[in-house]
């Protein structure tokens, strides 16, 4: 098992990464001992893993309650969030109760937001079970839900007390979901570590085959990169925005098509190709780097061409992005593979990217 630390003063917390962690009583005990625990999961993940998790924590916890939500991005909304509060209040949850988010990014974001807002904030543990959640969403404390007008528009920063990433859970992940998670792995290489990007390029077969050594390196290096960025800028007043590389275009695709049509990681994969193209049009990187990113995204089974929403619609959707300021869209571009920056860009140049990457 590897242990990393997210360094945020008195809100610092460990990330545990390794196989078999769902059964490790010692990792959960400091947070669950003597408390009422609410395990939030969904109809797909609960039948696979909640029994094992509940067995692990039952001896130490005062009580354990399961909250099983419907599965899917389209349920990351107010109505589903309300179900968490309904159960917690009806079972007598209090300020010492602890939520455990058992699932992918949708469950982690929603259960985290429930923890951020229940009685003005209670503790929660992230137990991510998708690759995307293990390499990205479980770390950093961004929690929230979607609004029909914009992705992740309602939420709060609320750090977990621990992240427990059991690599064995990835064995049951459908291939499409594995590819979606790999998009965020590529993102970390593209924005912060050219050597890691090279490594991903030369290990696509192992990554797609869920090889244990490859997965463990991908999760560990991604968490190291993300933790360092979060520690430097927890609430995204600056540098943390680079973690949104590919997301300005990607979120527009997700909300433009309707949540759940494309997976989040698929939209990010395509969005990274578009943001690389924009970087080349702005003169930052050579077209050979755009080709590298496009080929890697394609090799990992991700789309590299956006659905035809129309340039006007794309701009409208991108304006609702949280990085926008006074209606001005801010883009994450690459200065080179391994280094990103945040900038405004001329409408006409972005239009060229949009026209080049929408399906005809
Ligand atoms: P997801 O949570 O919808 O999970 C994908 C699918 O896999 C679901 O059907 C889920 O039930 C299933 N699943 C989960 N674990 C499984 C397992 N071990 N075996 C079999 N099936 C399993 O999607 P995701 O890709 O994990 O997360 C996407 C979400 O994360 C989006 O809402 C996105 O906005 C959010 N996100 C948040 C952050 C953040 O910093 N908070 C970062 C990136 C993404
Ligand atoms: N996934 C973007 C962030 O956590 O900041």
From TrEMBL:
GO terms for biological process: amino acid biosynthetic process; aromatic amino acid family biosynthetic process; chorismate biosynthetic process. InterPro entries: Dehydroquinate_synthase, DHQ_synth_AroB, DHQ_synth_fam, DHQS/DOIS_N, DHQS_C. Binds 1 divalent metal cation per subunit. Can use either Co(2+) or Zn(2+). Belongs to the sugar phosphate cyclases superfamily. Dehydroquinate synthase family. Residues 181-324 form the 3-dehydroquinate synthase C-terminal domain. It comes from Polynucleobacter sp. UK-FUSCHL-C3. It catalyses: 7-phospho-2-dehydro-3-deoxy-D-arabino-heptonate = 3-dehydroquinate + phosphate. Keywords: Amino-acid biosynthesis, Aromatic amino acid biosynthesis, Cobalt, Cytoplasm, Lyase, Membrane, Metal-binding, NAD, Nucleotide-binding, Transmembrane, Transmembrane helix, Zinc. Pfam families: DHQ_synthase (PF01761), DHQS_C (PF24621). This is 3-dehydroquinate synthase. One of its GO terms (molecular function) is nucleotide binding.
């Amino acid at each position: 098992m590897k242990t990393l630390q997210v360094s945020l003063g008195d809100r610092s917390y460990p990330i545990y990464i390794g196989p078999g962690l769902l059964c490790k009583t010692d990792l959960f005990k400091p947070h669950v001992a003597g408390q009422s625990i609410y395990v939030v999961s969904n109809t797909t993940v609960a039948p696979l893993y909640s029994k094992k998790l509940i067995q692990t924590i039952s001896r130490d916890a005062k009580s354990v309650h399961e909250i099983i939500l419907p599965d899917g991005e389209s349920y990351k909304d107010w109505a589903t969030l309300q179900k968490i509060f309904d159960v917690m209040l009806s079972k007598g949850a209090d300020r010492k109760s602890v939520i455990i988010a058992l699932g992918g990014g949708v469950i982690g974001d929603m259960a985290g937001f429930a923890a951020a807002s229940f009685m003005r904030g209670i503790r929660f543990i992230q137990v991510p079970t998708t690759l995307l959640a293990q390499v990205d969403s479980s770390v950093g404390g961004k929690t929230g839900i979607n609004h029909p007008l914009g992705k992740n528009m309602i939420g709060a920063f609320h750090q977990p007390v621990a992240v427990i990433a059991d690599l064995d859970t990835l064995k049951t992940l459908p291939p499409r979901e594995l590819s979606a998670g790999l998009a965020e792995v590529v993102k970390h290489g593209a924005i912060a570590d050219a050597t890691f990007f090279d490594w991903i390029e030369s290990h696509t077969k192992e990554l797609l085959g869920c090889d244990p050594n490859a997965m463990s390196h991908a999760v560990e290096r991604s968490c190291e990169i993300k933790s360092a960025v979060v520690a430097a800028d927890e609430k995204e007043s600056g540098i943390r925005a680079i973690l949104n590389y590919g997301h300005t275009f990607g979120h527009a695709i997700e909300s433009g098509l309707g949540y759940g049509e494309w997976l989040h990681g698929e939209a990010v994969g395509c969005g990274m190709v578009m943001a690389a193209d924009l970087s080349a049009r702005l003169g930052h990187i050579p077209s050979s780097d755009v080709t590298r990113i496009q080929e890697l995204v394609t090799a990992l089974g991700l789309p590299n061409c956006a659905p035809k929403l129309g340039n006007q619609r794309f701009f409208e959707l991108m304006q609702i992005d949280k990085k926008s300021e006074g209606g001005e869209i801010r883009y994450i571009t690459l200065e080179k593979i391994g280094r990103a920056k945040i900038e405004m860009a001329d409408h006409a140049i972005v239009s060229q990217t949009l026209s080049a990457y929408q399906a005809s």
